[in-house]
Design goal:
Blueprint lengths: L2 E6 L4 H12 L3 E6 L7 H11 L12 H5 L2 H4 L5 H10 L8 E3 L4 E3 L3 H8 L2
Parallel strand pairs: 1-2
Antiparallel strand pairs: 1-3, 3-4
Helix pairs in contact: 2-5
Organism: Paenibacillus graminis
Pfam families: ArsC (PF03960)
Family: Belongs to the ArsC family.
Length: 120
Amino acid sequence: MSHLKVYQYPKCSTCRSAVKWLKEAGHELELQHIAEQPPTAQELRVLVANSGLELKKFFNTSGEVYKNLGLKDKLPHLSEEEQLELLSKHGMLIKRPVVTDGKKVTVGFKEEAFSESWSM
């Protein structure tokens, strides 16, 4: 049985679907509330590096916080450090769920991607 850390928002239906999928696949999960306990800038740096994705893929571009902060226009002008700082301060800015086993990382929930990454 593998142990996964899932940064999620309990009220988010996508997160609930992902958690259900992972449990059914036989994973032991450590759930972390992304709004109450967002990952630190340092944790995010590791997550981004391990995901192989661009940092901008970690932003929840359809969320209220993203819109309220006007990030559509600001984001391209922010340094990586500033972006990591924003994400670590506003957990709801992070596209969710973020799942990691300490090496691999997935962002969001697509069953196909989960099958590739998290099937046992």
